Structure formats: C-alpha cells, structure tokens
User: Fold these one by one.
Assistant:
Number 1:
Amino acid sequence: MMSLDAFMRQFGDDEACRSYLSELRWPSGFCCPRCDSNRHCYIESRHVHECLDCHAQISVTSGTVMHGTKLPLSYWMFTFCWIASGELCTARKLAATLQLNYRSASRMLRAVRMAMQHSNGFHPLSEAARKKPVRPQTEPVIEKAREISRRRALRFIRSVYRKVSPAYLQSYVDEYYFRFARNFYNKLALPVLVRAGLYLSFPGTQAYR
C-alpha cells in the first residue's frame, strides 16, 4: 500500500483530491454531462462547474459512486488507494483507520466494489451469485474451469468477510475477480479503479446537480 507520507504528498487535502479526480474525469477539459457543452464557469465557493448553455451545476463527484458524499474526498482517495494496492480492506478496518462509523465505511467499500464491477465488465464470474445463471451452452471444460473459479471466489469471500448478504454476494465476487483474475496491481490500478468509479452512478443519482 502507498505509504502515508506518499499519500499525503499526493492527496493531502481535498483540493489535491479534487484536482486528481478532475483530470481523470475530464482529461480534455470540462464537458457538461447534460448537454456536452464545454462552456462553463467555476464556482469556487461551492466547488462546482456551471454550464453556460444549460446551466446545470456539476461537481467532480456528481453522478459518480461518490455522488452526494459528505465525507472528505481524501477519505475516498485513501479507500481507493488501499483497495488498488491489492491489500485486503474490510469495513471494520476502514472504519477504525479513518475513525468512521461502520455504516459509512461499509457504504464506501460498496461504492468501490461497484467501480470494480464497472471496470471488470462482463466476465466469467458475472453470474456466479445466481442460482441458475443465464448463459449459452458451453463446452464442459469451460464450465468446469468456471466452477473452479466460482468456488475459489466463494472461499475468498468466506475467509475475508465470513458472511455476506446474498443481495450483495455478486459485488464480492466482482471484487475477487478484480483482485485476482485480472492480476494487474501496479501503478495503473489506482487510476483504472477511480476512473471506473467516476463513470458509474449509484442507483437513483443523476449525472448533474
């Protein structure tokens, strides 16, 4: 995992985090998610961009897995960094480290798992949590390999998280796939994971304020 000193140098305050997120979300400059216009003004006091054409106000976290967050952006970046490092992170550990309540830590990790799922796309374990997966008939050897991977994923979940709700089981399987099947933990893991989170909304959110 990134050392604390290194983390503080790059993400020491919310402005540094906001700048990093902006560069990933809008690498060619701001673009309104409502009308695609790049004409805007920045309201510094509220940290939002106002589109000069449709007048939507958009923050760098609007319509992302961080949508509507009240937590410091440095907490989010710390969580993304922890996960991207390849080290295991539970809600209990995260809550203790950041001195958060368990519910907030759990929500943050759920959001990061959604980013993992988005980054993974459809993969061999995408329906692992379903009792009767819907997929075309495949060769027995492929089905056997998929079943072996599914069992490994479930063992990983039981060993790290003990027991998880069936409603969220697939998100933990997606975490397993991101961590182990893709096996790309390096300097690219953090921007890949954060970028996936920037382009994925929680259910019920909108892409603009």
Number 2:
Amino acid sequence: MKKNEDDNYNNPIDVDQIDLDRLKLATSDSPGTLTFGSNRGGVAFTPNKEGAIKSRAYSAMTGQLDMQLANIVEQMRVLAKQVEELKERKRVSELIYTAAMSFEPLTGKSYFLYEVVQDESITARLSMLSPKEWGEDKMKDQRFLAEVMLLADHTWKILASDNKFLESLR
C-alpha cells in the first residue's frame, strides 16, 4: 500500500472498544487450567443441555414408575379376586360341613349338594348321586344346589351350581 492509501484506510476494528480485562481472563500461563480448549489440539467442550438431559431422565423415570405401578395394581386385582374365591370356598365349606352326609368324602372327588325339605324344615345334604341318578320321583323332595369337589386343604370348590345358590353365597 502506498502512503495515500494508508491515510484513507478505515480499520473495521475499533481498538478503543476492546475489553482488555475480559481478554486477560481468556489467557493463561497454564492453559490446562482453562475451562475450554486453548489450542487446535485441545478438547472441545460444548455446554450440555441440562434442561434436555433432565427432561429425558424425568420422562424415563415417570414411564418406568407408571409401568411398575400398573403391574402392582394388576397384582392387587388378582389378589382381590383370589380373596373373593377363598371367601366363597369358605362359605361353601361351612355350608357343606353343616350338611347331612352319610359317608366320608375323598379329596379330588365330586359330590352333589341338595336342599332337602322334610317335615317343613329345610336342610342341606351332601350326596354321591347326581340329580340324574336320583330320578325324578326322588328329586321332588329335594333341590339341586351344586356339584362340589373336596380339595386337599379340605375346603370345597363349586364345579357347577344353580345360579340362585351362587347368589345366596355372596
């Protein structure tokens, strides 16, 4: 450049606007202590997106907890159903153990529970005979309630029944 051109040259960097104190913070005698890479070979540190990281973690956490809670609720439903079944078995067992029976029932075998009318009183009776085996004449004095099975724990399970009988147990 010639001298005339140097006088007309307008430098786009205004030296008076440079904050030298801030630049002092960006320099160091020991570059290893800087919080950013100080040369081309230095590790590039990028700021993390803390909000995004927390949001993903929170989403994953709530998803997992919701899934675990749903599993526990389902287990509670299963347990509640088992409780109702046990209550029904207890009521049936109490009724059968107060019923008349003239034999010793064996576990795993099915028997038949009847409601018998005798002398204006109604009693329950456990029998080895099905309603078909009794015949129509004998069935006039009794009403079939349920086909039941003695379980290993000596409670009784209903295999088949009159719907009215099931409703009366509940």
